[in-house]
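hey all, quick one before standup. I had two proteins in the batch that finished overnight and I want to keep them in one place so we stop losing track of which output belongs to which input. First protein below, input sequence then structure tokens straight from the run.
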Amino acid sequence: MDLHILEHRLRVTSLSKAGLERYTHGLIKLVFLRDKTRCKFFSLTEMPDDYTLVLDEEGFKELPQTDYLQVAEATWLALNVVSNGHSSTSSQTIGVTKIAKSVIAPLALHNVSVFLLSTYQTDFILVRESDLPAVIHTLSEEFSIFKEENGEPVPVDSNNVTNGFIKPKTAASPTVHPVLSPKNQFCVMSLDPDTLPTIATILMDVMFYSASLKALSADQDLDYIRFFSFSLIDGYISIVVDTQTQKRFPSNLLLTSASSELWRMVRIGGQPLGFDECGIVAQISEPLANADISAYYISTFNFDHALVPEEDIDNVITMLQRRQNGER
């Protein structure tokens, strides 16, 4: 298999809902007016209190710099696993599960923090630009590595990149974070970009005006959670919505998998996770890979989220809680 380092240089941000009105113009431009911006990588994920925006440098220029916008310090690069010239989608399991052992686990072992974004089409592994030598050093034996330049993949000479490279210290055992599972059922879908104008009013209403649900009570787990994700990356659209929100869209325009599978969420983290800790994705994805359970994985500014098939949710929660308790 090949590992492609994409051209996009990305920023990861958190937008407070209190400041949303100052950003709607820029966000509408990024989503609906693609010919007015050179942004090629845009992802918006709504949580109860904020939006996580992941976007390239051209898209970042569209965001006013105010106190409502938190920006992670690092610049991030997107990695993509490619099989036979196409993003890896042929295995029985889908999502992060198929790259858990070959990519996620080795990077965690070598102290490389990752930010993951699964879409309908593929999985993007985001790493800090400063960690790229460590990434190439870690994965060069498993993958042929290419770096995209002007849209073309150019082979990376790992010997040159890692010459004089100091192997990072092996990561300490990561903190095992609590997991919660809201009751929402979710759909992972796609959409022909040319049909965006047809659903513009609905999509803007969902993105900007949907009331936030009361997500967390004082002494109960998450019951229902407000979660919506929209990505427009290199011309491909991916949408994650709960089943109630899905009903608002014309069914004939949404593309789903042949099985029309429903997904349940596992949210990772009782408190904001931060960006420096390594192994968070691995501690979720490795057990799922061992059990051959598919999973989409969406990192946000404060928490991580795995979407697993509805029929597997009870087994997944039991498995992860045992891991939290130190059981095997």
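OK second protein, same deal, sequence then tokens:
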Amino acid sequence: CKRKRHSAELYFLLIESIMPVFSFTAPHITPEEEERERSTLSEEMKMELHDDLYGHRHDLELLETDQLVGGKLAEFERELSQIPAPLLKDYKEAMERAPELVQTESNPLKFLRCEKYDAAKAARRMSMYWKTRRKCFGDDRAFLPMKLHGAMKDDICVVESAIVSILPNDMNGRGVLFFDRIRAIPPMADRDAVLRCIFFMIHIMSEDMDIQKSGYVCLNNIKGYDLYKHFDRIFIKQSSILMVESMPTKIKAYHLLAGSENGVMSLVLPVMKHVVAQELRLRMVVHSGNDRKIMDTLRPYGLTSANLSFVLGGDFKQSDFMNWLHNWKKAEEPDNADLSCSFMMTGK
């Protein structure tokens, strides 16, 4: 009896320790609500969602002529002037403190390409870029160059851990971002450092003109997810804003790589889907099982073992990442400024 009572006490202590982070009564999305949400989408939106998930591109790409670019940049500036002051204040602060940096690292043309030359959407996205950048990096680093020895100077060890890394482009030419949620906890890295690494890696991908247009997919390792260690509502919300609203490239699919189908993620996923933006929620795909099964289920989405980290049995090894990082450090040097970002993303 004493042993049973002791076990029960330990159980409730565990529940109490988890509850401040994860509530079993927290707002969540039910399967029925998900189905209703999808049923309300227009046929055009359903087609766009399908194309994003599977990497199909049916829309005709505009020819970027001088006339088109000039007209769209002028329209962009008009739209930017219409954005409410609270949303625009971080961009204006950046313009006052580092105007050259604003032009080189948040060139309006990147955001126009990302939004298919919709000037209003592009202007809002750029204002969100600076709002998110300042929130992630603070006043002391937000206006430094987005480089390892600039804005990332205090996070180099976290970058080198490969918690967040760029993998080779998928079969459809889209960027691939890998995020190891299982290792992305203290003492390896705190929440803010992980958010900065995600920002940094997406920023690098978005230097590629093709990825500005075609977007990227994210692979999130959640094998071994623990409620107490890994659930973080604030991180989920902030990373959603960062990936969906803030960068000059769009997330097209978000693949969650899990172990058991009936593990702790069956509790977490409905809550997570409630927290994130609809654009991300609709693009979530869960893959369960062993490494081989996960690889098989990723293939229809344009992903192969080449796009999977060694953490999950893929071909992209730690040495590949370190080679990539070495090359990127060289790319940051002034005399190597013309090194192709596309080359860097091959991981070779």
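Flagging for whoever picks this up: The mean pLDDT is 88. The chain is about 55% helix and 10% strand.
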